[in-house]
Design goal:
It is a single chain. The chain is an alpha/beta fold. It has eleven helices and ten strands. The chain has an eight-stranded mixed β-sheet, with helices on both faces. The chain is globular. The model is unreliable at 1-9 (pLDDT under 50).
Length: 307
Amino acid sequence: MNTTVTVTKRLVNSFEQLAPGHRACLGCGEALAVRLVGKALGQNVIIVSATGCMEIISSQYPFTSWEVPWIHTLFENASAVASGIEAGIRALSRKGEFNEKTKVVAMGGDGATSDIGLQALSGALERRHNFIYICYDNEAYMNTGVQRSSATPYGASTTTSPASKITIGQTTWKKNMPAIVAAHDVPYVATACASYPFDLMSKVQKAMNVDGPSYIHILSVCPTGWRSSTESVIGLGRLAVRTGIFPLYEIEDGRYKLNMQMDKLHPVEEYLKQQGRFRHLSPEVIASIQTRVNADYAKLKEKATRS
């Protein structure tokens, strides 16, 4: 039986899209995010999953952890496959052969979203397909060995941007994917983090009700790649938000809204010092990161004020 439980005056569906028994790493923030997303999506969905951590841990042949229709695609074409499924549903609906309000949902990591799959995603957004794209951002190519992606933050040490005597590690700043998606003039864009579960689920439910493309960018703490303790997953997600490194906001029809607006940000050092990938950073580099975060957060607040 599919039941619901009331938690702080909100209804949470007890249905689990992602069944237990998958092979995610201990303390995987991404697996938690997928579970919360599934609760908000419900059962009447078709999931298209790019190659990545969630595909690797959930679909070892002949087993699957998915309790809804799910298809594995390549790194680069999740949005293209989702577009085809959504177009097929529309065609069948016009013929009277399909009367379900089934939502198509594409999922990918930061590599499959901001790097390899960006072209297909951009095309699907431009064509206005009625689907949700969810990016689980753990800030590197974690399932293939912690290689840097365009979502890897400045100063992080990865296997392909290692810290050394001559470099600090990653030398470029994190790509702003929500802004890139918003530039396509889509109805709904949001950021979220599993450390704030009701905010995350509320945003997924909003995206379900959008007629057209929507995009949710979820920070997914990765103890393995971030070299952090497994028990710090929720705390690190909260610090990412409270330092302004990963603010929670929505863009609805071009209007910005901050979901957690802080008059004073926590120092970024509180966040960085808990992760081995940043342990090599000097006080001067941390200060430069703080300056950049302050400036970016001020810009975001200004956009929200003008909306």
